[in-house]
Specification:
The protein is mainly alpha-helical. It contains 24 helices and two strands. It has a two-stranded antiparallel ribbon. It is globular, with a radius of gyration of 25 Å.
């Protein structure tokens, strides 16, 4: 930096630069320019510590080894909400609206533009901040260097699979419970609610295991596939298909943002999901008919994918609508207190309130999806504010202080699967985020208790420094910018 500064001031152009800027002012300008460059490119190559061989392997693991795959992973991390969470609106909703000639296509475009405006504003501003000088991949490798992370991830995945199947068999989360308006009386249903959101937690911990170099991509994909298959089985038990779409969207989104799942795999997953939808729709209808419910034969699987009609219905109402929303006390009661401790509380559903406002019955629910619900309940300005605030939360969880560790990845997973999921029901999704966080607290404590311990060692010069014992195959990550004799191994509890 100082050699460049001396060249600018004392080189072949002193009449141009020295007469306008002092040396201190020029230094500040060059530092600002270097800061903006580092926010996208990374740490300057001239002062970057030597990259260990393990980190070279990790860079090829995360985001792919090709230039295009690496660029895609960096882009997803720079604009996670705008590119990933708004992709279903652009890929599924808008093309269908154009093909079928939806008369409210202008309303849909304006609504998506409002949400994108809020997220792009925050994400673009975040690029100017220096989040991780040593690079996202390097910091994520150190942050997820947990000795028991893969073992805990597998235990959480198995527990979530068993709890979801047992809870669905006991009546929790089924369409029959939804239409009756009452919670199941089985104690198993209330007991399994204690681990609500553990399937999303398992996804976060599995990806953390991969980022920390504790498991191969093939093993991670096998466990993710097991979780997805469980959601497919739940469609046949609960007769509700929206959780499957939401879960697959979450896996694709978090995988693309972290670089674990490559962009082409996300595109293939979307195509497979669309092709498999008619079969899932038929299975869902058969389960409902066997349960004694009448299913309209006029609505086909193709009609059920007209999400553009579901959203554009909000254009015919004055906003914000006079619909009862959860109070602050409801957020505390439903979000922080497990149902097993408060089994007598009634079911909270803003979708039912919306359906009654539209002239429907209390035993059915209606949603304009996340983007439409925010507009319908709180107005146009709320759409910009909503996505701007949650984009700020996502950027802090993803990049503040370096790459995210297991806990931050879990919280990021809950945000993506709740408030920012395209098919969720606002504002109930925010309460679900709180419920999942409370249910994950035991795992967070377990991660803290089993974290890698630091020991104090004495160097040759007699000065103590912190050293974290690592596996012989793990890459050492020294702190950049310190003298070689004083470099301490970074510890991310």
């Amino acid at each position: 930096m100082f050699s460049l500064l001396d060249f600018v001031l004392d080189g072949p152009f002193p009449p141009i630069f020295a007469c306008r800027w002092s040396k201190g002012e020029a230094y500040v300008v060059l530092q600002l320019g270097d800061l903006v460059r580092q926010s996208w490119v990374g740490y300057p190559a001239s002062v970057r510590p030597r990259t260990p061989a393990g980190l070279h392997r990790q860079r090829s693991r995360v985001g792919g080894s090709g230039a295009l795959e690496g660029w895609a992973a960096r882009t997803f991390r720079s604009y996670p909400v705008s590119l990933v969470m708004f992709a279903p609106y652009v890929v599924f909703i808008m093309p269908v609206a154009v093909v079928y000639g939806n008369p409210e296509i202008g309303f849909l475009v304006s609504l998506i533009a409002l949400g994108l405006g809020g997220s792009l504003l925050v994400e673009s501003a975040a690029l100017l901040l220096r989040w991780a000088p040593e690079g996202w991949v390097r910091s994520a490798l150190g942050a997820n260097d947990h000795p028991r992370i893969y073992l805990i991830a597998r235990a959480v995945a198995i527990t979530s699979i068993v709890a979801d199947l047992v809870g669905a068999a006991a009546g929790r989360g089924t369409v029959f419970t939804q239409l009756s308006g009452a919670m199941p009386e089985s104690p198993l249903a209330n007991a399994t609610s204690l681990v609500s959101g553990w399937s999303e937690l398992a996804v976060a911990l599995l990806i953390a295991s991969y980022l920390g170099n504790k498991a191969s991509r093939r093993r991670i994909f096998v466990w993710l596939l097991a979780l997805i298959v469980t959601q497919v089985v739940l469609v046949g038990i609960t007769a509700i298909s929206s959780p499957l779409f939401g879960f697959v969207t979450l896996v694709a989104a978090l995988g693309a943002i972290s670089g674990v799942i490559r962009a082409r795999y996300v595109a293939v997953t979307a195509i497979v999901l669309v092709l498999a939808w008619p079969s899932l729709f038929q299975i869902r209808n058969e389960v409902r008919q066997n349960g004694g419910f009448t299913v309209s034969q006029e609505i086909t699987a193709e009609d059920r994918l007209r999400f553009d009609l579901q959203m554009s219905a909000a254009a015919h109402h004055d906003v914000p609508a006079e619909v009862r929303q959860p109070s602050p006390l409801d957020y505390i009661r439903y979000g922080l207190v497990p149902r097993v401790l408060d089994p007598e509380r009634p079911v909270l559903s803003t979708g039912r309130e919306i359906n009654q406002y539209l002239g429907g019955v209390a035993t059915s629910a209606y949603s304009f999806m996340t983007l439409g619900n925010v507009y319908f309940l709180d107005g146009r300005r709320a759409v910009v504010i909503y996505y701007a605030l949650w984009s700020a939360v996502v950027m802090m969880l993803l990049r503040l202080g370096g790459g995210p560790g297991p806990v931050r990845l879990a919280l990021l997973c809950f945000v993506l699967s709740g408030p920012l999921l395209w098919s969720s029901a606002y504002p109930d999704s925010t309460i679900a985020l709180m419920q999942h966080t409370v249910a994950a607290l035991p795992i967070f404590v377990l991660l803290w208790l089993t974290r890698r311990r630091a020991t104090v060692c004495v160097s040759r010069g007699g000065r103590p420094h912190r050293h974290v014992a690592r596996h012989r195959n793990d890459a050492f990550v020294p702190s950049p910018g310190l003298p070689r004799r004083d470099r301490a191994w970074r510890q991310h509890p």
